[in-house]
């Protein structure tokens, strides 16, 4: 006889935040790194095409590209 849906569900045992899991699967380090890279892609119009290309090719660090976007957005607000 069935338990009628009672009992333990079979969900995967995931620990940490989703961003950490995604970063791990993509092989890019931490979840924070993933968030920065996602932000850069979503805001690439705030970078020069050369800066975005350099970031994409690994010639410009993720942190520097992220900071350039932050500065650009701050300058637009002023």
**Number of extended strands:** 0
* Tally of contiguous helical segments: 4
Helix/strand class: mainly alpha
* Sheet with most strands: none
Helix content: 55-70%
Share in β-strands: under 5%
- Terminal Cα span: 69 Å
Oligomer class = single chain
Q: Measured on Cα atoms, how large is the radius of gyration? A: 20 Å
* Backbone shape: elongated
- The whole-number mean of residue pLDDT values reads 85
Characterization of this structure:
The protein is mainly alpha-helical and 78 residues long. 58% of the residues lie in helices and 0% in strands. It has four helices and no strands. It has helices at 18-26, 31-42, 49-56, 62-77. Helix 1 packs across helix 2 (31-42) and helix 2 (31-42) packs across helix 4 (62-77). The longest helix is centred in the C-terminal third of the chain and has 16 residues, at 62-77. The chain is elongated. The termini are far apart. The relative contact order is 0.10. The model has no long low-confidence stretch (mean pLDDT 85).
Q: What order do the helices and strands come in, and which of them pair?
A:
Elements lengths: L17 H9 L4 H12 L6 H8 L5 H16 L1
Concise description?
The protein is 58% helix and 0% strand.
Pick out its properties.
elongated; mainly alpha
């Amino acid at each position: 006889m069935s338990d009628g849906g009672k009992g333990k569900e079979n969900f995967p045992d995931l620990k940490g935040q989703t961003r950490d899991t995604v970063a791990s699967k993509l092989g890019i380090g931490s979840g924070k790194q993933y968030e920065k890279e996602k932000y850069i892609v979503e805001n690439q119009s705030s970078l020069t095409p050369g800066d975005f290309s350099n970031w994409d090719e690994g010639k410009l660090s993720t942190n520097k590209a992220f900071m350039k976007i932050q500065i650009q957005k701050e300058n637009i607000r002023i």
